[in-house]
Amino acid sequence: MENKNNNKKAGSKSLGAQFWKEFAKGIIISNPVFILALGLCPTLAVTSSLDNALGMSAGVIFVLLCSNIIISIIRKATPASARIPVFIVVIATFVTILSLVFQAYIPPLYESLGIYLALIVVNCIILGRAEVFASKNSVLLSIGDALGIGIGFTLALVIISLLREILGTGSLSVFGLELFKIPVLSASPMTFFILPPGAFLVIGLLLALFKWLGVIKNE
Amino acid sequence: MSNLITIFVVMAIVNNLVISKFLGLCPFFGVSKKLSNAVSMGIAVTLVMLLASLATSIINQFILIPYNVEFMNIVIYILVIASLVQIVELAIRRTNINLYNALGIYLPLITTNCAVLGITLINANKGYSILESVVSALGGGIGFTLVLVIMSGIREKIDLGETPRSMRGLPIAFIIAALLALAFTGFSGMM
Questions:
Q1: Which of A19, A38, A42 is nearest to A120 (CA)?
Q2: Looking at the domain assignment, is residue B22 inside a domain?
Q3: How far apart are CA B110 and CA B118, in angstroms?
Q4: Is residue B123 in a domain?
């Protein structure tokens, strides 16, 4: 009896509360990069500078939001056996739009992101959310899910790129505006962190940190 | 000829797909726990890369460029790769059941392997001819297999030792990859 009541309570929870729940879970509890370890390719490739990380995050949020909305709208009309090709075509369409927009309005960012912009198509985060969430839930909840996961992804990329850019160049700048400069470090920066091995090392240590925090919490 | 050799070596070692371009990391970390699986995955990926590069560069040269619709390449390439993987899966199942059983579970995963889409996009961006695309795919595939095999060899040994609890699994694999990448930076500037 009590169980039933609880179920009822959860079912009748306001739409707004459900929206916030889906939104909040993506940021920390199921952070796509640190907890689920999804979408690693762009995470390593574009975090050599903060500019690239922010550009990539904006692109992923745009594609994730649009594809989640469309897939959620057509979820009842999509035959189950043909759903993956449908998802891929929807995602690829938005990635094409995104890459044309970047090419037209922000060419320097388009140049520095290179093929990784096009590779958003095969980013497992986006296909994963389409399959796990948007194909089973309403449009509003899918928007919340997309925004939460997108912001979680942004957060991860910003943390990694901050570490890599500050250690690797000794300074930090956002879109041409220099924020600060560390005197000794910028004279002889640890270039290692900008190079590929630095990316693997920083993410490996951050994953270990998150795992360690999880272990401590459980004990 | 020397041009083709350069493309091959650059794609296989100097600009290794996994180590310096960060493509195909999911299978790199997911399938590198056992040496035998790593070899199977490497062969499957190389095969699909070769076929995908051949198909997409033909489409690029005879359809996309003449009709000036190159901006459609992302949609077209991903569809070509997805259908190609299905065809390869079917063909292997019909002709060689042993190979199918060995590769079976990895084949569907290759559709969303960014290394395959990545190499077709690299070929298109660099404006390679059909022959050059195939050679670059062969180099990319062999480079991918090489790193996967090295990685799985190290991980088999690491499993025997004591690793701190928080480093077990993915974190330690990333640290190994960092050391591997450091070794591979020795090749940069070559060619």
A1: A42
A2: no
A3: 12
A4: yes
Chain B residues with beta carbon closer than 8 angstroms to that of A96: 71-72, 74-75
Residue extents of the structural domains in chain A: 15-165
Residue A126: closest C-alpha in chain B: B112
- For A121, B38, B148, B183, the CA distances from B30, given in Å and listed in that order, are 20, 10, 10, 22
Judge whether B118 and A115 are in contact, CB under 8 Å: yes
Percent of chain A with pLDDT over 90: 28
The predicted model gives B168-185 an average pLDDT of 89
A96–B21 CB contact, under 8 Å = no
Q: Which two tokens stand for residue B129?
A: 């001819």
Contact between B167 and A119 using a beta-carbon 8 Å cutoff: no
Give how many domains chain B has, as a whole number.
Answer: 1
Domain, as residue range, for B58: 33-155
Closest CA in chain B for residue A35: B170
Return the amino acid letter for A59: G
In a domain, B56, yes or no: yes
The structure tokens listed for B36 are: 């035998």
Report the C-alpha gap between B148 and B137 in whole angstroms: 16
In this predicted model, what pLDDT tens digit does every residue of A143-182 receive, in sequence order?
998 999 999 999 999 999 999 988 888 888 887 777 787 7
Q: Phi and psi of A198, rounded to 5°?
A: -60, -40
pLDDT exceeds cutoff 70 at B119: yes
The predicted pLDDT at position B146 comes to 93
Asked if residue B112 belongs to a domain, the reply is: yes
pLDDT band at A34 (very low <50, low <70, confident <90, very high): confident
Mean pLDDT, residues A57-75 = 92
* B129 CB within 8 Å of a chain A CB: no
Cα dist from A181 to A49, A168, A173, A178, A185, whole Å? 15, 12, 9, 8, 8
Of B25, B82, B169, the CB nearest to A44: B25
Tell me what the pLDDT averaged over chain A comes to: 84
